[in-house]
Amino acid sequence: MSFPRTRFRRLRVNKTMRRMVAETRLSVDELVYPMFVCPGKQTKEPIEAMENCFRFSPDLAAKEAAKIAALGIPAILLFGTKEKKDAVGSRAWAADSVVCQAISKIKSKTLELLVITDVCLCAYTDSGHCGVIKDKKINNDSTLEVLAKMSLAHAKAGADMVAPSDMMDGRVGVIREALDDEGFVETAIMSYSSKFASAFYGPFRDAAQSTPAFGDRKTYQIDPACGRQAIRQMAADIEQGADIVMVKPALAYLDIIAKARRRFDVPIAAYNVSGEYMMLHAAAKAGLLDLQSAMMETLLSIKRAGADIIITYFAPDVAKILNK
Q1: Which domain holds residue 45?
Q2: Beta bridge pairs of residue 114
Q3: Annotated catalytic residue, options 82, 105, 195, 303
Q4: How far apart are CA 123 and CA 152, in angstroms?
Q5: How many domains does the chain divide into?
Q6: Can you give the CATH number for the domain in which 170 is found?
Q7: Residue 258 maps to a domain
Q8: Cα–Cα–Cα angle for 73, 277, 121, nearest 5°?
Q9: Which end of the chain is more exposed for a tag (fewer CB within 10 A), N or C?
Q10: Residues 106-165: tens digit of each pLDDT
Q11: 248 catalytic per annotation
Q12: What is the pLDDT of residues 244-295, one digit of tens each?
């Protein structure tokens, strides 16, 4: 039918009507909050490049995680920072790493909170790269063994889920086998399957102090021009045992989220990364937009594209709004 019989504005006439017919809804249940942990005690360091974000020592990370759980947010994603670096990133799989310490302390306080850990070497290697360097190149297969050891260390400390973000080929299968062989059959894997070589990671690299000492990550992260390749990599990770697959970043890759949702029946996660987070903060500080409205619209677009899980630094702010 056509105008005047059909009037789309009837379903927009007031807030209650709009709420009733909303096609996409955000929920606290879909949020994951990324947290940075560092060595020390009673330490809370502001991250200069990221508004309202901090590095926490394991003891304070546990207190912060309890606050996150109290907001109804179901999960956190832990990143280790400021560990001693070496050629192979040996602190990544140490039983007393800051991540392992934080896992134990968080789990002792908030058993219902899911603890997910980032599995990658970039914050632990003196090269700043995500794998083991041989002959000035990333050696894919040597890195897999190290990633498996890192995943096992986190699982032994009590992690509910490991999230390999290194982008080495075959790492999901190697990690799954290592976990199963050690009896951690219930430890889930959320794979950064479609992690693009993006310009939007800048603030994070300051937070994690993981800027590469040479070159870049374009030989292992996906070229932004290769959408079909991203879907192929998701399929491969699912076949190897990934329980959840991720698209990172989210906003510039909403098309990939939508394609993945149509293609796969596993949960799809999307990472609203540091550059996307800080763009809104910078624009709001400049008086160019309303931060809260832009934040909610942004996350709604990620959900509308097909994401089941949204990893975002906005999580506490969003939860407070949704809990009203």
Answers
A1: 26-322
A2: 75
A3: 195
A4: 18
A5: 1
A6: 3.20.20.70
A7: yes
A8: 80
A9: C
A10: 999 888 999 999 999 999 998 888 989 988 889 999 999 999 999 999 999 999 999 999
A11: yes
A12: 999 999 999 999 999 999 999 999 999 999 999 999 999 999 999 999 999 9
